Amino acid sequence: MRLYVTEMTTAIRVSLADRTNFALLFGGMVLNNGFVLLMWFMFFAGFRSVRGWQLADMALQIGLLAITFGAAGVFAGGYRDMAAAILRGDLDAWLTQPRAVLPRLLAQESAAPGWGDILVGIALVAFAASLRWADLPALLFVLGGSLIVFLATGVLFASLAFWARGARSFARDLVEFLLTFGTWPGSIWSGATKLIVYTIVPAGFVVVLPVRFLRHPSLSAGLLLVAAALAYAALALLVFRGGLRRYRR
């Protein structure tokens, strides 16, 4: 953990070194998020609600997704191109050292645009999501679960590169699908699509379930989020370690 924190801190400093580039990436991400918010603001101005979800619920969902995605990019940005690192053979040098490989893979990069996502997410949750200060512990709880599920999913997708050379673009596409599903109202999913967003592309556990927990706190929803976080983390570690053994051979 100490090594991970050291390397992650170094990656953040590198991402902030070029102030002009950082400002452009930061501003671009804020602008991009602004267009998404404007679209939903215009939508709810006309339709008011979608199966019970209103503008405040949508702001909360997008805010949670922005914070989760931004935090993953800033503090574990290596997940974004982990498949490419595997295919390039970057693991060779790390395998000669007595340190865990996965934390170093995650800490090798910090995405500067992630700070823009975090800022927009915090602003949405604070000013547009109709939350109270009393909801802060529950908010931190769901953000922790959401981040674990998101990162575990990213690692799981990237680990496919141990078996298939085309996994780099495939892993990126799956993460994009997760983000896309996460920007649509959680109330619209049903049937087969609901199964997908709670399994293969777990946007349900990343944002939909957290929103429902914050709106209607319950022990069952909290336990389900904890179980999902543990299950996806365990599966990601299992697949990564299996792939690493194959890589060594």
What does this entry look like structurally?
- The protein has 249 residues and is an all-alpha fold.
- The chain has one domain.
- Helices cover 76% and strands 0% of the residues.
- It is built from twelve helices and no strands.
Largest sheet: none
Distance between the termini: 27 Å
Beta-strand percent range: under 5%
Question: Helical residue percent?
Answer: over 70%
Q: Characteristics of this structure?
A:
249 residues, mainly alpha, 12 helices, 0% strand, globular
SSE map:
Layout: H1 2-17, H2 19-47, H3 55-75, H4 82-88, H5 91-94, H6 101-107, H7 113-127, H8 136-158, H9 167-182, H10 191-197, H11 203-215, H12 219-248
Helix pairs in contact: 1-6, 2-3, 2-7, 3-7, 3-8, 3-11, 8-9, 8-11, 8-12, 9-11, 11-12
Provide a short characterization of the protein structure.
The chain has 249 residues and is mainly α. The chain has helices spanning 2-17, 19-47, 55-75, 82-88, 91-94, 101-107, 113-127, 136-158, 167-182, 191-197, 203-215, 219-248.
